[in-house]
Amino acid sequence: MPTVQPASDRALDHVAASASGPPLDRSLRVTLNFHPDRYQHGIPLIARLVEQGRYLSQFATGTSNGGLTAYEGGDRWRWEHRIFGGAYDRAAPDQRPVYGALNFRGRGVGAAQRFGSAHLRLTEATLERTTFCFPDSTFEPTDFGVAEHLSLIELAAAADHDQLDDYIEAQVHGGVRLDRDVEACVLDPCFRGTEIEHAARRLPCRVEWHGGFVLSVEELLRHSDYRGPEIVDLGATIAVDGRLDPVIIGAAVRSGAHDPQAIKKVWHCVARFGTRADS
């Protein structure tokens, strides 16, 4: 019987056929941003990563820091059907690609901080099985790339996008194993000495720290037009000692006292205006 090509290989071949441009700079890295202290199945996500030993897509986890449309007929399913030529239509949830971003700007906080204060920095080897698009897949992009042919950096660099939308989306095929595919787990310093750091130390990769997200209420009040006055009011309400950081945002999420979508928009303000200049 003929050998059936894996879905991941078919997806990569399908995108490569329409990619153009020069090879990707091999010093660049894909990062997977996430909130390490969000709970999944009763434990922080970082501890869940320790248990699983791999990073899974929202098709497998049922959770997302963006829109949750990973089900048959949903927006994510339809987008993957289109861009990957139907390669994953019959694939098991844990065989589908995971999403991150190409850190072409070299940000210490990762390429797409809107999706979380922490990130996994992937190895160079994973670039060979990664596809790319610009802008984000939710905008139905028509420009794609692979490591051998990538013209997206010029497009992204020239785009007039908000900082939280200023990334090249990456789809990593063939799985992301923590012991094989990750160079480091990079955390916000507000998690030093917490259960999040203790869990991260159990991962089979290095733990590193970026410059940190901190936003004062005073600064937040200057940006009521960013996500709306009601979001600024909520941020001021949940702030501790006149400031917001990832630990404070996570505590507000776990309290259950606020609309999770509203808290997510507070995080957007912190991610946008609370990043240190060297991050």
TrEMBL record:
**Stretches the record annotates as Disordered:** 1-20
Checking Pfam families in the record gives: DUF3626
- Protein name per the record: DUF3626 domain-containing protein
